[in-house]
Amino acid sequence: MNVFCMLRLRISALLLIGLVALTDSGCTHYQLGTSSAKLSFSSLYIEPVVSRAMVPQAQPLVSTQIRDNFEKDGRVSLVNSPEAADAVLSVVLVGYDREVSSVRSGDTGLARQFAIHLRAECTLTDRRTGQMLFDKRPIESTKYAYTDSGQLQSEYQTLPLLAEDLAGKIRHTVLDVW
Q: pLDDT digits over 90-135, tens only?
């Protein structure tokens, strides 16, 4: 190995060490997770979901998924009455629709896949002060349903996935410090 190759190797090693030292210091104050964010409430009452959307059986499914999402998160405690809560969450399902996202190769007039949208509006109220933390905030979930086993059956199977996704987005909206 000649002197020129050794010199290039040493310079490359020094540059790499310098680059690591510069980029490593940027992460020293980063904290993973949400423990540094402080919520203005510690207990939450979730009102039963109201449905104005034309989708049968969504109401109990979404209600259950929302409660499960908050219970698994653990940042707030769920209570059984608005009087016992620091904050109250109300959720209204306002829309359910589908759009064709792909068609069958043999007949372009028939859908093979639908994009199914479930929309909700959420209101979070601080019960102690009466102040609305947010009012009718729109939240939407979209999932895809293949019609290979029939449109009705595929939509029926997609509804729990929509409810779970919507509940997760509602939880993030409520618990992430805005």
A: 999 999 888 876 655 565 555 667 888 999 999 999 999 989 999 9
End-to-end, the C-alpha distance of the chain in Å comes to 60
Kindly report whether the global pTM for this prediction surpasses the value 0.90. Answer: no
User: Can you tell me the distance from the alpha carbon of 76 to that of 67, in angstroms, rounded to the nearest whole number?
Assistant: 11
Cα torsion angle, 63, 64, 65, 66, sign:
positive
Model confidence over 39-77: pLDDT tens digits? 888 999 999 999 998 888 889 999 999 999 999 998 999
Phi/psi of residue 113, each to 5°? Answer: -145, 140
Q: Percentages helix, strand, coil for the chain, rounded to the nearest 5?
A: 40, 30, 30
Number of domains in the chain: 1
Q: What is the CATH number of the domain that holds 56?
A: 3.30.160.150
Is residue 11 in some structural domain? Answer: no
The tokens for 64 are: 């259950």
Enumerate helices (H) and strands (E) in the chain, giving the number of each: 3, 6
State how far the alpha carbon of 58 is from the alpha carbons of 50, 89, 141, 156, in Å.
Answer: 10, 18, 13, 10
